[in-house]
Design goal:
The chain is α/β, with parallel strands linked by helices and about 425 residues long. It is built from 16 helices and ten strands. It is globular, with a radius of gyration of 22 Å. Bound molecules: guanosine-5'-diphosphate and magnesium ion. The site of guanosine-5'-diphosphate has 18 residues, from β1, β2 and α4.
């Protein structure tokens, strides 16, 4: 069959390259300022940890207007003279850049990388973000070693993050995935992953590339697929994650919708498997763990509360149709509450998530998830208030308690779903 996922000239380039042991993929969209550091880390990581393997580094770009692909192609740590590895004797990895086809989004960028890695018959594919400032050559060792040496198929990152960074991860993606599929994977949507050559054909053969999986839904889809198809999963300790921060008010909406609707839709598809899960398994962490204090992330509690109050009022009618009467009433009673008294009960957030999940799992449209954003802001505000004087370790305990509650209340979702399906 003629393959047409990639531009024709890339298929030709693949024919010339013929095969590779490792493919490193870097998705980008206007990352000219940060991508050179990521490529240099990748080139040095390959030279240092995989000197005998044939490697290709692929930049899958979304049509950047700031020259990102040129910066990618020109990055070269070997002739700069200011890295200590410059005397490494190895053939530098080959680089290639492409504008991916398909609907714009990070997932489409990944699809092209997977296609290239698959056609080159790579044993290992590693993907890393192009806005990372804390990435080092060691990341490539930690993400690759479990696959090449220990027979794992999928490696997710494990980072030290500031207590207010990664709020979608902490409040939904982590506890929900842990509760449904019974694996304690702390960063299921971290963005930096190791993937085995065995798992790649599974990803590219699925018909998901016209959905939110082609956008920011990609990470949760990759992780859920690996967990629900019995692939062996590990974590890699990568130290701190420092990347370009976003203004949550401006950029969070589409990302929230794409990640959360994908997670909930998959939970519906995989409910039978989730019903088999009885406990949560620990997932091994490879690497050299240490403690450090990540860059603080400023949060504006007043603004979060304002977004909760205004957003709830704006979407009140739609929210009422999704939540149970009790959950709706409890959240509504918090609207207008002064900061000093504002708090979600531990169960309130879990119930809200599970009630939305039931709706989406039963085929509700992804954009219904937009109406959940104010409720999410309310939960973030409540978390921020509760953890304000806590250090990262103490606030991590709060995240863990919440995750445990998600697990203990999993029947609330699974039972609701079963009953509504059979009506
Ligand atoms: N090619 C491509 N890459 C994208 C697109 N959107 C995001 N990315 C890349 O995906 C990575 C993660 O995106 P980012 O916005 O930093 O997400 P976050 O770190 O999860 O908040 C970065 O390397 C982006 O350049 C897109 O539409 N096309
Ligand atoms: Mg980022």
């Amino acid at each position: 069959m003629e393959r047409d996922i990639l531009p024709a000239e890339i298929y030709k380039e693949i024919e010339v390259i013929d095969s590779a042991d490792i493919v490193i993929g870097i998705p980008s969209y206007n990352n000219a300022k940060s991508i050179a550091h990521v490529v240099n880390a990748a080139l040095l990581g390959l030279a240092k940890y995989y000197p005998d393997m044939k490697a290709v580094i692929v930049n899958s770009d979304g049509g950047s207007s700031d020259g990102t692909p040129d910066v990618f192609m020109n990055a070269n740590p070997f002739n700069k003279g200011d890295y200590f590895f410059t005397d490494l004797e190895c053939v530098p990895a080959r680089k290639m850049t492409l504008s991916y086809k398909g609907i714009p989004g990070k997932g489409s960028a990944f699809r092209s990388i997977f296609e290239i890695a698959y056609l080159l018959d790579a044993e290992l594919c590693i993907v890393v973000d192009s806005d990372l400032r804390s990435i080092t050559p060691e990341w490539f060792e930690c993400l690759g070693y479990p696959i090449l040496e220990k027979d794992y198929d999928y490696v997710t990152p494990f980072y030290l993050r500031h207590k207010y960074d990664g709020t979608i991860t902490n409040s939904i993606a982590y506890p929900f995935t842990r509760a449904m599929y019974g694996h304690d994977l702390r960063q299921p949507i971290g963005g930096d992953f190791g993937i085995s050559g065995t798992l790649l054909p599974n990803y590219i053969s699925q018909d998901v590339w016209e959905t939110d999986v082609a956008k920011y839904g990609i990470d949760i889809w990759m992780t859920t697929t690996a967990l629900t198809h019995d692939y062996k999963v590990a974590q890699a300790f990568l130290g701190c994650k420092i990347h370009d921060v976003k203004d949550p008010g401006e950029h969070l909406g589409p990302m929230f919708r794409q990640v959360v609707s994908t997670l909930m839709r998959l939970a519906g598809e995989k409910a039978d498997l989730a019903r088999e899960v009885k406990t949560v398994k620990e997932v091994p962490i490879f690497g050299f763990p240490f403690t450090a204090t990540p860059e603080p992330l400023p949060v504006n509690l007043d603004r979060l509360l304002e977004k909760f109050n205004n957003g709830f009022k704006e979407h009140e009618e739609a929210i009422k149709l999704i939540l149970s009467p009790d959950t709706f009433k409890e959240i509504k009673s918090l609207v207008g509450t002064p900061i000093e008294k504002f708090a979600y009960s531990p169960e309130l957030w879990v119930k809200s998530v599970y009630e939305y999940a039931t709706k989406i799992a039963l085929g509700g449209k992804a954009d219904l998830v937009d109406t959940m954003i104010p409720i999410y802001y309310g939960n973030v505000a409540s978390f921020v208030k509760k953890t304000w004087d806590m250090n990262d370790e103490q606030s991590e305990r709060v995240v863990q308690e919440q995750a445990e509650l998600f697990f203990n209340m999993r029947e609330y979702f699974l039972k609701n779903l079963r009953e509504k399906v059979s009506v």
